[in-house]
Amino acid sequence: MPAGDHTIDPFAGLTDEVPTTLADHLRSVQLVDHHVHGVFDEPIDRAAFEASINEGSTDPVPGWMTMFDGPLGVAIRRWCAPVLGLAPHVSGDDYWAARAALEPADLAERFLRPAGVARWVVDTGFQGTLITPPERLTELSGGVPSSEILRLELQIESLLAAGTSPADLPDAFRARLAEARPHIVGTKTIAAYRCGFDVDWTRPDDRTVAAAAEEMLARPGAPRVDSAALSAFAVHEAAAAGLPVQVHVGFGDRDLDLHRADPMLLLPLLRIIEPVPVLLLHCYPFHRQAGYLAQAFDHVSFDVGLAINYLGSRSVELVGEAMEVAPFAKQLYSSDAFGPPELHYLGSLLWRRAMGLVLGAWVRRGEWSLDDAVRAVDLIGVENAERVYGL
Amino acid sequence: MPAGDHTIDPFAGLTDEVPTTLADHLRSVQLVDHHVHGVFDEPIDRAAFEASINEGSTDPVPGWMTMFDGPLGVAIRRWCAPVLGLAPHVSGDDYWAARAALEPADLAERFLRPAGVARWVVDTGFQGTLITPPERLTELSGGVPSSEILRLELQIESLLAAGTSPADLPDAFRARLAEARPHIVGTKTIAAYRCGFDVDWTRPDDRTVAAAAEEMLARPGAPRVDSAALSAFAVHEAAAAGLPVQVHVGFGDRDLDLHRADPMLLLPLLRIIEPVPVLLLHCYPFHRQAGYLAQAFDHVSFDVGLAINYLGSRSVELVGEAMEVAPFAKQLYSSDAFGPPELHYLGSLLWRRAMGLVLGAWVRRGEWSLDDAVRAVDLIGVENAERVYGL
Amino acid sequence: MPAGDHTIDPFAGLTDEVPTTLADHLRSVQLVDHHVHGVFDEPIDRAAFEASINEGSTDPVPGWMTMFDGPLGVAIRRWCAPVLGLAPHVSGDDYWAARAALEPADLAERFLRPAGVARWVVDTGFQGTLITPPERLTELSGGVPSSEILRLELQIESLLAAGTSPADLPDAFRARLAEARPHIVGTKTIAAYRCGFDVDWTRPDDRTVAAAAEEMLARPGAPRVDSAALSAFAVHEAAAAGLPVQVHVGFGDRDLDLHRADPMLLLPLLRIIEPVPVLLLHCYPFHRQAGYLAQAFDHVSFDVGLAINYLGSRSVELVGEAMEVAPFAKQLYSSDAFGPPELHYLGSLLWRRAMGLVLGAWVRRGEWSLDDAVRAVDLIGVENAERVYGL
Asked: What Gene3D superfamilies does the database record attribute to this sequence (chains A, B, C) (predicted)?
C-alpha cells in the first residue's frame, strides 16, 4: 500500500504511534484474504449501494438517514474517496456522484489492485449470480490468484433440486465432495443461518440424513436446508474428506439469531469432529470466545473479518481484542468483502492500520520486539492461511 | 457547560486530546435527555444517598466500604464537588457534609441548570412518589421543558387495582393509551424485570390477556404484571397506537436476571412488532448486541444511559463500544438519572467528555473530519430523539 | 519490584504514562495472591512447559506452532527472560535453553522472591502431587506465608473413595469441614467443570445428597462429583459453616462449557446462599458480568486472575474492564499461577503494570486523585483479601 501521501497512506497520522519499520512491513505485506466474495459486476443504484454497506438489515435504508453517516460510511469517505481522486471526508453525495460515474470494472480495478492481496479465497455460495466469479476477481485485481471454498448446504440443496432422491443424497453428496475436491481448498457451513449452533452435532447416519431430506422436500418452495441433521452431516463429511471447514459465526444479517451463533455452542462439534482445520469466521461480538476456542483446540482458528470493515475506526479495538488469548498461529485475516470493491480494499487497509496501532503501542512500550510484531503480522496475514488451506 | 476552569470544565486535562472546535461544540450543545427520572424532593440520609448510587443492590451498603470508593463515587467527588464549591477529589465524608447542608431544591437547581439539557423525557413510573414529577423537574432546571413516557406494565396494574375486570382489561388498556396519547411522547416496558426476554412475544388475543390477568389477580398481594402475555400485549398495543416503545435492556437491579435481558432475545419481537421506534435502554454489558440490532432494524435505536454514570472514567470505553456498528442515526443520549441530581449533571458531563475523547482521537488521526464528529454529536445528543419522539 | 533498569522494572517504557508516585507505590506494595497453586517441583520437558502455558487445550502443542508465539509467550520472553539473565525478547528456543539448565527449586526461588507477594492463598486441590504444597511454596519464596483453600468436590470424592457410605456422606462432609476449618481460610467449588451453573442451586436435603452419591458410585471408575445436588450441597454447607466460597467462573480448560460458566447463571445461588464472602475467580470473558454481580451483592467479590497472564499485553484492557462498575472493595488480585513459577511472578508484574496504566491515565487527566488511585491499589491488591478471608 502507498506510503507518505496522507490521503492514501494507511499510516497517515500515526507517525508517533506506529514504528516506521512495522508500518513499512504492514504497507508491503501481501495478504491472503481467506474469506471473501466477488464484486458487483453490474451498475447499482444508490439504494443498492447503501444496502450493500449495511450488514444485517433487510429494510431499505430510510429517508431520514444515510449509511454514509455510520462507522463504515465514514471509513469509506475517508479511505476510499482518495482512490477515486476525491479529498478525504467528502460528503456521501459527492462520494456517490464520483462512484456512480465509473463502470463496475473500472471501480473494481481501482480498489482491488491496491488492496495488497496475494490470494483471494473465495466463497461463491451467496448470490453468486450478482457478483463476479473467482476467475473474474483474479482478472480485475490484475492477476491475483483465487482459490475456492464450497458452500456445504448449497450442495445439498442443488442436488435435491436437480432430482437426487433423499435416499441417494448421502452418496451423491460424498461424490460431489470428491469431485469438487481438486478444485477447492475448503468448505463452509452456514448452519448459523439455518439451524443455529445449539443443536445436536452428532454425526448422523445416512438413514437419518435421508429422512431429514425427505421432510425438507415435503415442504412447499425450493429445498432449503435448515435442519441440524443436514448441516451436521455435511460438516462431518467435509471433515472426513480432510477438507477445512469454515463456519459462519456471529455477525451477519438479521435472519440469524445472533445469540444462537455464539461459537461456544459449537463445543459439542469441536470435541468430536475429525481434526481438520475449522475456521471460525467474523465472530463479532463473540470474538473473545472464538479466541478462547482457538487456544483450546489445535484444529480451530478464527478471524474477525466483516466486522473490521463495519467497525471503521473501532476496528483497532476489535483487532486488539482478537489478540487476547489465541496463539498467533490460530488467527487469520479476511475482509469478507461482498459487492462493492471498496470493501476488499478497506478491509485490508483497516486491518493493516489496526495491527500497526495495536502492535505499535506494545513495541513502543518495550513489551514486544519488532521481530515479534512482524512475525505476528506474517502469521495472521499470510502464513496461517497458507498452512490451513495448503496453498 | 463551562470552559476553561479546570475544576468544572468537562474537557479539563484533555487539551491535547480533544480538538478545540469539537470540545467547544460539545460544551455548548443542549442535549435531549431521552430517558430520565425526577430528583429527590426530600432530604435523604447518607445511607439512602449511597444506596441511590448503587444500581443493582438491595443490600444496605456495608460498614466496611463506601460507594464513594467506586467508579461512580470517584466521578461524583471529581466532577460534582466543584459544583458545590468544593475542590475536586474531596473525600466522601467532606462531599457528604457539603451536600447534606443544602436543601433538596437548592441541590437540584445547582446540578440541573448546568447540565446543558434542552428537554427531559421523563419516565414517571418508578417510585414516583419519592421524586419530583416532570413539571417540578422543569421548574428546578430553570424552565427546561419535560415530556413524559408512560410505563406500560404500571397501567395494567393500576387498571386492575382500580377494579377493572380481567375481561375488560384489553379495552380499558386501549382506552387509557388513547387518553394518555396527547400527553405522552412514548411508552416503556420493564419486561426485563418481570418475565425476561426469552418468552413468547406473539401478540396475544384479548381472551389470552384476560386469562393472564385473571391468573395474576388470583395470587395474593397487589397485582404485579409478570407474565409474558401481559407485557407482550402492552407492547403490541403501544406499537399499534403508533407510540414509541422504550425497553429496559441489560444493567439494572439484581431482581433482574441480567442474562435474560440480553437484547438479542428480543429478536422475535423486533421481527413482528409494528415498526414504531423501539428504544433499547442502557444495554450494558450487551451494548454491542444493541448496536447490532440498531443496525439491522430500521425502527430500532439504543442508548448506553445509566452505565455512563456507573462506569465513571470507563464511560469513555463504553461510548467507544457504542460507536461500533450502528449508524449515527440509531443511537440516543440519556442519563437515566434517578434521585440525586448529581446524576442528571454527571451523565451529561461524562457523555460529552467521552464523545470528545472518542471522536477527538479519530479526528486527530485524520480518520474523521470535524464536521463528521459534530454531526454525530448532534444526531446522538439531540436530533435522533427529536425525530423518534416527534418533539 | 525493581525500579529503573528497563529490563526488569515493571514500569519500563511508561515514564510518561504512569505518574512516579503511583508507579513507586505499585512497585512496592506487597500483594495477597488470593488464588494460586504450587510450582512444579520436578524438571519438565519443553512439551510439558508449553502445555503448562496453554490454558484450555488438552491437545499437545502441534509442531507448526509454539506457545512462545502468543500473548503469554511474548510476555514470558519479555518479562521473565531478564530474571534468568537473558535479554528481553529472546527467542523461545533461547528462553527454553536457559530455563532447562536450572533446577526446579532454583527456578522457583528466582521467580517467587521478586513477585512481591505478602501471602499465598493456595488452592491445593488440582494435580496436587505434581506441584509443591503450601509449606514448600512458602520456603521457596523466602518465607512468604501461605494460607489454604479447600476444594469442596474433592472432599466428597475422597470421602466416598475412602469408603464413606452415601447415607453417611452428609454428616461425614460436615465433620470434615469442621475438622479442616482451623487450617483453611476458605473453600472452592469447581461446579463450572462438573455441572455448569445453569442448574438447581437449592440447598438439597441429606436424603437427596445420599441419593446423588449413590448414583455416582453406581457408575464405573473413581467417584467423580458431577451432579448439581452434590456441588450445591457442598457450597451451602461451606456457607453454613461461615467459610468463604471461591467459585471457578469462565476461562478454564476445554472440558468446561464456557457459556455455562457465565456468572449470571449463579444468580439463583447468590440470592439464597448464606452471605459468606463469595469470590468469583477468573471470570474472563464474563468479567463485566462479574463486576455487575459484585456491585449488586454485598457478599460477592471477583478477580480477573489467570486471564491477566494469558492476555499478556492486553491485560491492561482487561484490568480496565474490571474497573467498570464494582466498588473497589469488591475486587481482588490473584495470579492463579499453576506450575511454572514464571506465572506467579508475571501475574504480579502484569497486574501492577496494568493498574499503573489504567489508573495513571485517569490521574493524568485529572479524573482521579493520586490518593484514590493508591487506595484502589491497596484495596484490590491487599486489603480486600485480608478482610474476606480474615487474614
From this structure: Metal-dependent hydrolases
Number of separate domains in chain B: 2
Cβ–Cβ gap A296/C56 under 8 Å:
yes
DSSP C115: G
Does residue C110 share a domain with residue C53? no
Q: Residue C71: which of A265, A325, A369 has the nearest Cβ? A: A325
pLDDT in tens, B284-323: 999 999 999 999 999 999 999 999 999 999 999 999 999 9
Backbone angles phi, psi at C258, to 5 degrees: -55, -40
Residue of B nearest to C317 (CA): B317
Q: How close is the nearest chain C Cα to the Cα of B88, in Å?
A: 8
Q: Which residues of chain C neighbour A298 with C-beta distances below 8 Å?
A: 57, 59-62
- The DSSP code sequence of C21-68 is HHHHHHHH--EEEEEE--BB-S---HHHHHHHT-SS--SPPPTT--TT
Q: Decide if C1 is inside a domain.
A: no
Output the domain CATH number for residue B215. 3.20.20.140
Q: How does strand B186-189 pair with strand B31-36?
A: unpaired
A-B CB pairs within 8 A amount to 101
| Contact between B316 and B280 (Cβ < 8 Å) | no
Residue B265 to residue A253, Cβ atoms within 8 A = no
A262 and A325 fall within a common domain? yes
pLDDT for B56: 67
In this prediction, residue B129 carries a pLDDT of 64
Q: Give the residue numbers spanning the domain of A91.
A: 45-102
Residue B251 has a pLDDT of 93
Binning pLDDT at 50, 70 and 90, where does residue B128 land?
A: low
Q: Which residue of A has its CA nearest to B260?
A: A259
What average pLDDT score do residues A219-223 get?
Answer: 90
What mean pLDDT value characterizes chain B? 95
Which residue of C264, C324, C370, C389 is the best one to mutate when testing the B interface, meaning the one whose CB has the most B CBs within 10 A?
C324
Same domain, A91 and A188: no
Residues of C in contact with B6 (CB under 8 A): 366
CA distances to B202, C105, C107, C345 from C348, in Å? 53, 20, 17, 5
Q: C-alpha B97: how far from its chain's center?
A: 28
CA gap C317, C311 in Å, rounded: 9
Q: Are residues C152 and C239 in the same domain?
A: yes
Residues B260, B216 share a domain: yes
Is residue B240 domain-shared with residue B379, that is, in the same domain?
A: yes
State how far residue A78 is from chain B, nearest Cα, in angstroms.
6
**pLDDT for A55:** 81
Q: How confident is the model at residue B127, as a pLDDT?
A: 66
Mean pLDDT over all residues of chain C?
95
DSSP annotation string for A221-280: SS-----HHHHHHHHHHHHHTT--EEEEES---TTS-GGGG-GGGGHHHHHHS-SS-EEE
**What pLDDT was estimated at residue A60?**
82
Q: What ipTM was estimated for this complex?
A: 0.96
Taking the CA of residue B89 and the nearest CA in chain A, the distance in Å comes to: 30
Give the mean model confidence (pLDDT) for residues B176-201.
97
Query: pTM for the complete prediction?
Result: 0.97
| Position C100 pLDDT exceeds 90 | yes
- Is residue B384 one of the residues assigned to a domain? yes
Residue C71: closest CA among B160, A331, B40? A331
Q: What is the mean pLDDT of residues C107-117?
A: 97
DSSP assignments along B137-157, one per residue: HHHHTTS--EEEEEEHHHHHH
Q: Is residue A304 part of a domain?
A: yes
> Are residues C172 and C54 both part of a single domain?
no
- How would residue A129 be classed by pLDDT, with cut points 50, 70 and 90? low
Span A64-80, mean pLDDT? 97
B102, B124, B148 - which closes a domain? B102
B110 and B63 in a common domain: no
Position C7 in a domain: no
